[in-house]
Amino acid sequence: MVELIAKPALGQGVPLRIGRLALEAPDPGVLSWIAPAPGRQGQLAAALRAAFGFGWPEPGRVLGAGAARLAWFGPGQGMLIGPPPPGRLAGAALADQSDAWVLLRLDGCGVEDALARLVPLDLRPGRFGRGQVARSLLGRVPVVLLRGPGTAVDLLVPRSMGGSAVALLRRAMAIVAARARQAE
């Protein structure tokens, strides 16, 4: 019988610190994809409010309380990050995505400069503030960006592309650090 060996999705790539930027892979907890049945979004929002203290997010928004966050994940879709969903959420389809996505956190001075090299969105705090979420590309890697507290940006990337995402971010971080040294 073949014995499988579990390997981390990102190998030895993180945590990583280059210049004033830090990249880490915090444990997101459970990742649960949620989609309300047609006409049942209000019922689902009530069930979420009872379980976590927040309802259904508007497009491009993240709601949170304690360790739980619910991010808009596309039309009629959300991703619950943190705790598992309560038993059954009435009026919703659920799928555990914990093994499908990797969470990366980029933080420090120059986050927007590094991401500007890879993401075709304006991620400056005035345009992409705390509590916002966007789906895009990180180079050629699909990504969901969540603005966190301070300068932090969380990135959800498909697990199979986690190593590629880290390599892209490492290069962008190095360029930002080199430019900062050059400016000194």
Tell me about this structure:
- The protein has helices at residues 41-52, 111-116, 162-183; strands at residues 16-18, 21-24, 30-36, 62-65, 68-74, 77-82, 92-96, 101-108, 133-138, 141-147, 153-158.
- The protein is an alpha+beta fold.
- The protein has two domains: 16-27 and 99-183, 2-Layer Sandwich (Gyrase A, domain 2); 30-96, 2-Layer Sandwich (Alpha-Beta Plaits).
- Strand 4 (62-65) and strand 5 form a beta hairpin.
- The longest helix is centred in the last third of the chain and has 22 residues, at 162-183.
- The protein is globular.
List keywords for this structure.
2 domains, Gyrase A, domain 2, 34% strand, 3 helices, six-stranded antiparallel beta sheet, alpha+beta, five-stranded antiparallel beta sheet, Alpha-Beta Plaits, 184 residues
Order of helices and strands: EEEHEEEEEHEEEH
Q: Please work out how many helical segments DSSP would assign.
A: 3
Instruction: Report the mean per-residue pLDDT as an integer.
Output: 92
Distance between the termini: 59 Å
Reading off the top of the CATH hierarchy, the class of the largest domain is best stated as: Alpha Beta
Runs in which pLDDT lies below 50 for 5 or more consecutive residues are none
% residues in beta strands: 25-35%
Examine the secondary-structure arrangement and name the CATH architecture of the largest domain.
2-Layer Sandwich
